[in-house]
Each structure stands twice: as structure tokens, then as C-alpha cells.
Input
Amino acid sequence: MNTDKNNYNNYKNTNKFEYNVISLLQKTPFIRKRQLIESLRTEFKKTRGYSIENIQKKLYDMEHKGILLVISPKNFQKFGIKDEDKRSRYVTLKKTEEIASHLDSVIGNISSDNSIKQKMALRELERYEKYCLLNPRQLDILIAQLDTEDIDFIDNILRIVYTYIDKKDIEPYDSPKTIEMLRNLLNKYPKPLLHRNKNLRTHFIYLLGHYNDYAVVERLKKDAEELDNLHEMRDYESNYTANIIEDHREELYEFEEKLRLEGKEEPAQFIAQTRVTAMIHLGMYDNPLKQNIADVEGF
Output
């Protein structure tokens, strides 16, 4: 599929400048106006008509033609834009606003009692995940639907929420409610699941770690005592869980000591290694694997 040709066909009534702006905004749906101007100047520096003054005038014309939408700080939350600078302005395509309005109506179906409507709504949100952002209040609606027995539905919602927090730096507005829901789910599914839902518990733990919640430490200690094959466990090897684990160094040290005195070597080693991994993520301990590679390369 020739994307450039398709874009041209979609916007064949636009001039070359407008086409270039549209192409850029299709790749980056929301961009600071100042950054957009700089990107255009850099990319088309050898092309006439791309001075700051000309770009500003042409962007103004595109706004008044209904091609562009300029977003002021009071509307940042509506579009999921996280920026504390009250002087900044963002630019997007008018079409993006229309998609955002569509998703706003679709997300209401997440609360429906009809499973078909719920699953269709989730798929629609995933389709536009790259192009249009949910805002924190909309993520709250997703979180509220996690209180269900449908494990696949939970998994789908968590995947969306995790992506927003991890990749897009957009969090649910109601943090206490989000933490409470994640704790409840971790208690409900305390052990690793198999097959297609195998990452579900990992997402619970990572997100609770993101919120620096003590439930991570509680679950870590229970895992050490209750689970087999601890050497295969990877749920605590992330930047998210590192801080909460290191913050409870004394408690975990004493717990490891207790396990060793009881002759429980594998659980004790699991706790010790988990703490070391957390310190590596925090830059407090050198990664021995990297050091070994460096030594070999040096030799």
C-alpha cells in the first residue's frame, strides 16, 4: 500500500504546503504549534515559502478553512494532552477532533450490560489507539469496568490502560480508585495465569509498582512462600517495581534472613535476586551480566 499516494488522494484538493502539514499530523496527531513550525522549517529548509512568517500565516489559513484545530490549555484534558505550560498551543487535524468525539460516544458502551457492545467498544478504542488519545476521565471509565468475572475483558482493558500509562504518560484521573481496583484484582488472581492471559498478573504488579503501592511487596513475599519455579518469575523485574522493593529493603532483608534460617534456600534466593534486580534498575548496583560482556570485549 502506498501511503503517500493514499494521502494525496484523500487530500487532493489541498495545496503542497497543506499536504505537507497534513502528512506530518497524520504521523503525530498532537504537536505543539511551535514544534510543528520548527519541524516544517527543518524538513523543508531548502524549499521556498517556509519562513516562520509564511508558515504561521498558512497555518492560520488552514485553521480558518477547517483543516486544522488549534487546542488551548483549557481543552488539553479533553484530548489527553499532558502539558502544564499554560502558554502552549497544540495543533491537530479537524478530523482528529471528529474521531475524538466518536470515541467519546463509543466509550459509553463500555459500561453497557451487553457484552457485544462492550467488546465492540474496546476494539474500536484499540483501532484508534495510535491516532487519538483517551483522556484521564475516560480511563476512569475503563477502570470501573474491571470489576467483572470476564477475564478476557479484564485483560483487554488492562492492556489499554497499561499502554496509556507506560507509553503515553496518561493516567486515570482517580488514582485511589485505580489502586484499589488493582489490589482487588491481584488478590482475585494471585497466581500466574496460563496461555493467553499469562501477562495479566504482571500488569497488575507493574501498575501497582508504578503507584508505589505496598501490595507489590506483600505479593512478592507470598510468591516466595507459595509458588514453585521461582527462578522463572519475571513479574518484579521492572523499573516500575524497583522503587517500592528498594524502599522496603529492611523488611525484605529480614524476610530473606527468616527464610534462610528455616532452610528455605530457593525462596530466600528469589528475594535476594529480586532486590538486586531492583537496585540494578535504579542504578544502585552494577549489572554483572553487562560487566561480563564488557570484560570479554575488553579482552
Q: What stands out?
A: The first strand starts at residue 31 and ends at 32.
